[in-house]
Amino acid sequence: MTDIRPDPDPSGPGSEQLREAVSTPTTGVPAQGSDPVFEARGVTKRFGGLLAVSEVDFTIPRGAIVSLIGPNGAGKTTFFNMITGLYRPTSGQIRFDGRDLTGLKPHEVVRAGIGRTFQNIRLFGNMSAVDNVLVGLHHRLKGRWWEAILRPPSIVAEEKRAFDEAERLLAFVGLEGKTHITARNLAYGDQRRLEIARALATEPKLLLLDEPTAGMNPEETRRLTDFVRRLRSDLGLTVLLIEHDMQVVMGISDRVTVLDHGERIAEGSPDTVRRDARVIEAYLGSGAAAGVGTH
């Protein structure tokens, strides 16, 4: 995983970024609903003798933008993978929209209304942008395999509707006019947007974004941050993101949850979390945490 790494040098890049986040006002907007759309209770994941996630309780209010942060190896992506069915929890329960998702397979989680992107972009590089989005639409199509061969009018009409929907999603994410460009030939930021378009094609209620601004320059980061806000304002989505850029986290989140060594060590508003001594210690070491009270 790519995160802000603990940096023993107080002048190192991770230290400077967190210090800037502590001193910068947040601009997150209030959550749209207080009832939880997602709940995890006592979720634990072991890989043999390694405890990756330990009895984590976690809720996401409906309509909120929530960030999950923590130093490298904190268990964030493992937690994402349990939500989306790639890993089965060793113990605990995961509920979404009133339904128990614990142990469901990835395609069943998608059908329940959870979509995701990946830390390392996972597009079909030799397929066009529109074909990548059509992959996300596939589970919503009704045609059978033999109908795809015989191509009755109903299938032709369904394929046309799917193509139009894919083009609409490409336009929504800012890729209008790039329908037939091969995915691997798109700029890096456009590939990130394409992966989001593919996730949106599954019609999620909850969208999980795993480090969406990783590898982006400041202008690309700003545009994508604004776009994440649009996902809520225009589509009414609830968003959970893992993000290494503390400026993004503090500026966009309604609530921040912090993991360290698989345990939840802090949770609350960005203002609360960025000043939490345990969070500062997790990122920068005990010496930095001790200095919090001196300013």
Report the principal-axis shape.
Answer: globular
Query: How many strands, which pairing sense, and closed or not: the largest β-sheet?
Result: 6 strands, mixed
Count the DSSP helices: 12
Distance from N terminus to C terminus (CA atoms, Å) equals 32 Å
Strand order of the largest sheet: 6-7-8-3-9-10
Instruction: Report the structural category.
Output: alpha/beta
Radius of gyration: 20 Å
User: How many strand segments?
Assistant: 10
How many separate domains?
1
Q: Which blocks of ≥5 consecutive residues have pLDDT under 50?
A: 1-32
Assign the CATH class.
Alpha Beta
CATH architecture tag: 3-Layer(aba) Sandwich
Strand-residue proportion: 15-25%
The CATH superfamily appears as P-loop containing nucleotide triphosphate hydrolases
Overall description:
With 295 residues, the protein is an alpha/beta fold. It has a single domain, classed as P-loop containing nucleotide triphosphate hydrolases (Rossmann fold, 3-Layer(aba) Sandwich). The protein is built from twelve helices and ten strands. The strands form two sheets. It has a six-stranded mixed β-sheet, with helices on both faces. A hairpin with a 2-residue loop joins strand 1 and strand 2. The longest helix has 20 residues. It is globular, with a radius of gyration of 20 Å. The N terminus is likely disordered.
In short:
With 295 residues, the protein is α/β, with parallel strands linked by helices. Helix content is 40%, strand content 21%.
